[in-house]
Design a protein that fits this description.
about 90 residues, elongated
């Protein structure tokens, strides 16, 4: 009998699929992306995401605690390690 052991990347793909696209950190408009973008542009924390991509369709603002934490992870990461838009 052959048992396929998933690679770490395959495991991450499965977890993302089970959790939903909003948790994909590479998704333009996803929770992490929106958090980091809000930080970059100097906007206040406002957990949300755009299922169809940033500013396409309607934003989702009614979030679960896990979704809020994912948004804040993006925001906080950019606050600590990212950079800010230079408006000069």
């Amino acid at each position: 009998m052959y048992i396929h052991l998933m690679t770490e990347e395959e495991q991450k793909t499965v977890v993302r699929a089970l959790r939903g696209p909003q948790f994909d950190r590479k998704l333009h408009g996803g929770l992490y992306d929106r958090g980091s973008a809000d930080s970059y542009y100097g906007r206040p924390r406002d957990p949300h995401w755009w299922p169809q991509g940033s500013y396409e369709g309607e934003p989702v603002e009614s979030l679960t605690e896990a979704e809020i934490q994912e948004y804040l992870a993006g925001y906080d990461y950019n606050e600590q390690y990212g950079h800010k838009k230079d408006y000069d």
